[in-house]
Amino acid sequence: MSLSVRFQHRFPTLTLDIAFEAASVGVTVLFGPSGCAKSTVAAAIAGLLHPDSGRIVVEGTELFDSTTGIDVPPERRRIGTVFQDARLFPHMTVLSNLRYGERRAPPGSIRLDEIVDLLGIEHLLKRRSPTLSGGERQRVAIGRALLSQPRLLAMDEPLASLDGRRKAEILPFLARLKTKLALPVIYITHSLEELASLADTLVLIDSGRVIAMGPLDELASRGDLPIAVRDDAGAVLSARVVEHDRTRGLTVLDCSGTRLLVPLLEAAPETRLRVRVPAREVILATEHVGASSVHNVLEGTVRGINPDPAHEAILVEVQLQGTRLLARVTPDALESLHIAPTRPILALVKSVSIETLPG
Amino acid sequence: MDCRLPSCLPGCSHGPAFPAGRWSTHLPICRWFCRLLGIRGPIGSWLFEWFDIRLVFTTAGAALACAVMSFPLMLRAIRLSLEAVDPGLEQAARSLGAGPIDRFATVTLPLAAPGVLVGAIVGFASSLGDFGAVITFAGNIPGRTQTLPLAIFTALQTPGGEATAARLSMVSIALAVTGLLAADWIGKRLQRLTGR
């Protein structure tokens, strides 16, 4: 584990007690409602906040240890930080902003032209940062942080201040970054969409403590976590493109053994991507229905049943071949189908209700 | 030349002709200043012996006196502008590897430049009008330490010098207005450069 964070900090209204670990490559998303002090975690890693006690280790380097008194100042931590409000230097051009961290960093593998290309900001280089749009600013801020050759990239709600369109404009860049750069990334958000497209590991935070931690596909399909009771809750599966059936207009995906049909995708076979199956779109059945428009009829067993009082509903975890789904059904359906743990069940998913995400 | 108090206060002989309000606040500061920097004072004697620098009754001394008197006013303007720089930008610079002096020079100071300029204007304006400090510390020596206000004062003290005084006042006004216009122009450019 290349990142190990454990700290306690007392605020007037909230006591933080955070502990989690993250792999040396991949995105760890810290997810939680607004105001649950997620940003504090990024600040503690970057050294902008001094926790009361704890220990923070990145890539084998101790950055903070309250028992031995180690507290590396932020400028020597080499944590690339992307703030919610971009914080570009207004008196510099985009290029000078990008070079600011690069000039102060030891030589590294991340090159300027590569980053400019990856983030699509070449046409902005000569502009001054106040003239950029929110989305452009955030892209430059990400590039600036990356060019400081960081040990770790910490992104604190980088898309939170952007509207839906701008968000959709940046998400693909982030997904590309993730696959191109071998760098641990801490990503803080309260958006399920960002979580689903970026996370490898998920750390759920609520009221200052970690309530669950694990691979995204595992946590997203659990019905007993706060993310499951959100309107847009749903399982996230990692998938591989198997083949395209152009005559039927369908693409066959393989999700660790479970085959899914989705509307035709523009992706070469063997491409890895993610699919999100919203819980409210999953139909449960105990026997095969006759002719229907449903393309995906998946055999599985009931793994767990959890109440969802916010929707007057029940969340059913379904274990499929190699993967899991989450279904939101009414208590009435649960009763009439006699759904109970370990019983076999069929999960029906319309191909058009499956969301495909990059990465 | 020693800087004893009586010789330090040539204006005393002029009695009520001095602008009383300012003079009274300047007096104690000037007195200490003379004591320290006069060629027998602890700093002044050292400067004189080692570097042959004499401040009292010299042009440099007049400039120094103006600087000391306008410094508190400048400091306030500059400090306010430094404090107005977004600490988030300093944090960003920090996270990008900039140490304290580095980020002050590359982020804080450039962004505070318009405020520093305001400080400079304030300093210029107060020096332009300074009377007591210069006359106390550097005297009123034509061609060496006679500043515009001192020249106006001297002209007014000379019978028939009113016309000279009026001309000098015009010069003073012209200088002040030019300074203000220049500062305004530079200020606008700086604001654009710092992105506001």
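Chain B has a mean pLDDT of 80.
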